Amino acid sequence: MVTINDIAQQAGVAKSTVSRYLNGGSVSQKTKDKLAAIVAETGYRPNTFAQSLKAKKTTIIGTIIPRLDSYSANEVLISIDKGLREKNFQLLITNTNQDSKREIESIYSLASQKVAGILLFATVITEAHKKAIADVAIPVILLGQQADDLYSIVHDEYDAGYKIGKYATDLGHKNFLYLTVFEADVAVGKMRKKGVLDALNESKETTIELVETSFTFEKAYEQVIKMLPNVTASYIICATDNIALAVLKAAHQLKIVIPNVFSLSGFGGYQITTVVSPTITTVKYAYQELGEIAVKNLLLLLEGLPVPKKTILKNKLIENESTKRLN
């Protein structure tokens, strides 16, 4: 791997001269031409991260994610990484394992590493989050969650929930089990749930059982496999596709046939929901678009230009094999 020392030795100049050239500093035209030729010949690529730490204006964007195994976060990250690379920015990722304290620590940590801005996939937004964002004094955009006076890009969670609830009652179902998550997660635990419940309650004589479970597949599966033998609902609505996949696995283990025994749906539009059997009815979210808008808005903020405080993305109901109409 070619280093800055190699370039300096080959050009017969000091390392500091090469550094000035690479950072756009004052270098004679003759030396500049010589260095340009050597850099092109050797294929040398400067360390963007190291340069950013030294520069007043950095090209590193920090991203805080909730889990390394999150399908939704990874889909957005692919889009973010692509967008940033096209604009010659680098992506620095930190994982929090859905620990809100680690999210706050990561905000301060990334700022101390002189990132230009932060994209935050927060699990919750607390006063401590708001204080940290104010303290670091660099642009921060929330992804998937929202808070007053903070920049955010969110999915229309209420609409997504309402779509599934209305779809389920239109199929003739009356008896429901809704597997939700903790309410501290406002997007999924409150807004999505409210949409579901409002739609279900518009239909007469519905019964709804609410059970809180985990975002993680393994924990949800451990809980669900104990519950399913006693479930009487004709339709199980899951707060995420991950939870729906856990229900599907448990049903297979217990030899429960879906949708003959009960219908099943989730949220997210994960690709795997189209390859399992039965394929799972879901609401597909605009993950790629979220990443594209996140990059666009953050770079505008870095230029001191205005962007909307909140951007709301649409979603689409995808009907698959896991649901059926009741006679």
Automatic annotation (TrEMBL):
Keywords, alphabetical: DNA-binding, Transcription, Transcription regulation
Pfam families: LacI, Peripla_BP_3
Classification via SUPFAM superfamilies: lambda repressor-like DNA-binding domains, Periplasmic binding protein-like I
InterPro entries, sorted: HTH_LacI (IPR000843), LacI/GalR-like_sensor (IPR046335), Lambda_DNA-bd_dom_sf (IPR010982), Peripla_BP_I (IPR028082)
SMART domains: HTH_LACI
Domain spans labelled HTH lacI-type: 2-55
S-adenosyl-L-methionine found in the keyword field: no
KW Nucleotide-binding (keyword) present: no
GO molecular-function term, one example from the UniProt record: transcription cis-regulatory region binding
Name under which the protein is recorded: Transcriptional regulator, LacI family
Lineage, opening ranks: Bacteria, Bacillati, Bacillota, Bacilli, Lactobacillales
